[in-house]
Protein 1
Amino acid sequence: MRDLLSLTGMVIRSTPVGEYDKRLVLLTRERGKITAFARGARRPGSRLMGPSRLFAFGTYRLYEGREAYNLQDAEIKKYFEELSSDMEAACYGQYFLELSDWFSGENMDAGPQLLLLYQSLRALLSPAIPDCLVRRIFELKTMVVGGEYTERPPGKAGDAAAYAWEYVVTAPLGKLYTFRLSDEAFSEFSENVQAGLSRCTDREFRSLKLLEVLADRPPDPGF
């Protein structure tokens, strides 16, 4: 009989399959990014309905198959359901899932990225720091976790922007979202983060395109 595995993770993709099932992509601390099928998760009253939602975070119990896992049950600690009441924050959150998906792989230590994702979604729910700054901090720290960064800003940056860059690079994951920037410093910081990110990815993220529509403004170079 196959062993039942317990993995700590978050749903970063959820796709309907057939009439009642879902195909999930989980970012897990122990095994990195994995694919799992939640059989019957779309049936009314299914115990897997909640655990198969985007952003659901907790302990997932699964059986390992040849090409994918099969979800048996889960103990969810956080659903981040507050994001559903704020469309802009929800789009930022979706982007964080997409970027984590891009930078993550299978059979790797995803503990740091999972913690970063969790802390960043919490920051989106806090009024203490603007969502646009949360985004740029998340992007830079994701590059740091993935080893795709420079110790100093790659472009022009004043003292405040340069300090913010160095702070994000070196700060513990639990201490990231503790500062704000002036408009000028944020603009410099944002441009440098975007420059670094453009070297790491060649993908257009749908969630960022939706943010442009919500903002009802011409596309910003940072998007």
Protein 2
Amino acid sequence: MAETQHGYKIWAVDDVVYGPVDHAVAVGWIAEQRVLPDTWIFVEKDKVWKAAGEVPEFKKHFAEADGRPVTRVAEANPLIAGIKPGSLRKVSILNELSDQQLGRFAQFMEVQYVLQHDVLVRQGESGDAMYLLLEGLVRVRSIIGDKENTIAHLKAGDFFGEISLFDHGLRSADVVANQHSVLLKISAESFQKLTEEFPELATPFLVAVCQTLVHRIREDNHRHYDFIRFKRAAEEERGRS
């Protein structure tokens, strides 16, 4: 009986995802030892990452390869092409996802490389994506008159634009690259697809985002409280003078 033909993506030892390739190509790579039992493979029909040796249709091919010397060992995680393994772990809101979940989640992301001084989002524009900062440094700013007001600096592991995933509203500030940076973009359309097809991935991601937002709100409330307390103390001091 002929092998069922499915598409596969191969996370190779050079940290690049190749494919999709068909069954014949994958088998050829097994024979050439370009794919080893612990090489990660994304099986498109199942929408899941697996070690190649655990994929049923490849087991017999690895059995046939037993006894041949192995010249290298695959040591890569199924994350995203062009991004070093472990880079996504810099983003705290992804820490609750397993490597396999990250591999599936990565299928909904787009890598963006930006140069110093590039404007990533502009105040007043309609938002349609969230960004995760993997490398580099960016600043959040607002322009009042001709003066730039820096609101915050964001480093690797931070994220921004998350509100636009829900309301597609106008951006509240500019975000500008202070240096060459690498980001992951999650569009509102991709996120909607993620929630519909993989709610088990979307749920922990949303919980982590909400926890971060709650922390930010608490910090803002604390700063607002300190401002009011300082203002009242100043007014009382003027009243006594």
Protein 3
Amino acid sequence: MRGRVLVVAGSDSGGGAGIQADIKSITALGGFAATALTALTAQNTVGVFGVHPVPPAFIRQQIQVVMEDIGADVIKTGMLGDVPTIEAVCAALSDFAHGVPLVLDPVMVAKGGHALLADAAVGVLRSRLLPMARVITPNLPEAEALSGMTIQSVADMRTACGVLLSLGVPAVLLKGGHLAGDELTDLLATPDGIEAFVGLRIATRHTHGTGCTTASAVAVGLAQGMSLRDAVIRARAYVRAAIASAPGFGAGHGPLDHGVTFDPSRLEV
């Protein structure tokens, strides 16, 4: 099964994150990506220099026409930007994609620090969209905003997972890359328990788009019929390989090598 993923997210003119990273990741892992753009951004590896929101009615129309013709096995959301966008996406998914699993990447801040979600929209994201998700994939700052707690250790990550699950989310992939140290821990939490995935950090500044890439890699795995755990394992391996072979472009946080090849038969937890 090839796996169809409809990505609802913003663009990255630098090609490293956003809808561009989503399309590249889904394609690299053998899936088919369709898109509904929520915003255009002017950005590169140094930062975000401009954001142009897409009108909510047009976001809805993009979702409608894709679902009515091509369809999707999984929906993946990224940058949503503001309250009207979130409301439009929630309504469109209810109307045109009811029952389709949602992988929600709660994009809030770009790698360079530019806010990509209005403060007023965090509560709406938490109350409206989170309960619709099959799995959410926050990094630590995003998990802090959603849970209302400070996360400074793996123990805190475990506590935060419990808080996020209590909001009505069936599963949380909490990424620990913002913690200090050479060891990097991601947690996959469900009501059945929490599994830790531990690896050594790759020493590089070329990590732009890792969040978008991870979420899309998980989404296409689910679209291809993989279990959530297996989709996470493959996604982590793909992202690590893409970081390790990053092309080194740009003066800031450079993009990954989304076209990297790796042997999925040799995946390790």
Protein 4
Amino acid sequence: MDASAKADKDPEFLSTLERGLAVLRAFDQNRPEMSLSEVAAVTDLSPAVARRCLNTLVQLGYVAKHGRRFLLRPEVLVFGSAFMSSMNLETVALPALQYLRDETGDSSSMAVLSGHDILYVAHVSTTRPIRLSANVGTRFPIHATSLGKVLLAFQPEDAIETYLRSAALTRFTPHTIVDPAALRACLAETRANGFASAQDELDFGIVSVAAPVFDKDRRVTCAINCSTTTARISRSDLAAARAPLLRQAARDIQAALLKSPYLAHALTGSLFFEYRT
């Protein structure tokens, strides 16, 4: 739904704020610096609107201007740090993720849905190198990850169908599931097993298994995973060995969330936003 449609539907919707946030989100690893015309093209804004947004963000200290190019300033980190500190995420999630890492030697992560991507909100790394590194704030496509499959599998059916109709199921390797019917079957298997696994789907040499974390109303709030290299363990062996540990870690996090209901509300709310608009 575009900004004008949202504004027509909700008179409280501020399209100017949406445009400003779109400009901030336009910068990423592949676009650390952009000209005005590049920002306008990426955000689908007119150059005049993009210029006003950029100038405002420069004055507020969130964007810097270097010659004719714009880039983010460290001040934008205040948004992420405010979430991490106010939600007490490290206390709730990190002990269980660190336990998984120590028991398995695999990196472990927690993620939520964000549009057609998964968004990492916690991560504990291992010393073993892996081709695709993940940190807090990293995004990967839902369909090519075990975390994404778990998060999507336990959504309401209408949300799953909306995703399958609207998402671009990009093929990253020959093993990536891009057929909607095949992905739908994979999601059904995930619900039956209570976990999802993936190998060589996002990139070659990566294998992972993920499990859901539910709230007290049996709604999925987030997902956790273990990931490593295919040279270390096969997909079937990884699932057999890690799934029980992941389930226990998920229960530990679920118990911790009962003591931090505001975090459970924040995590669960992020799952449904894209599909309700």
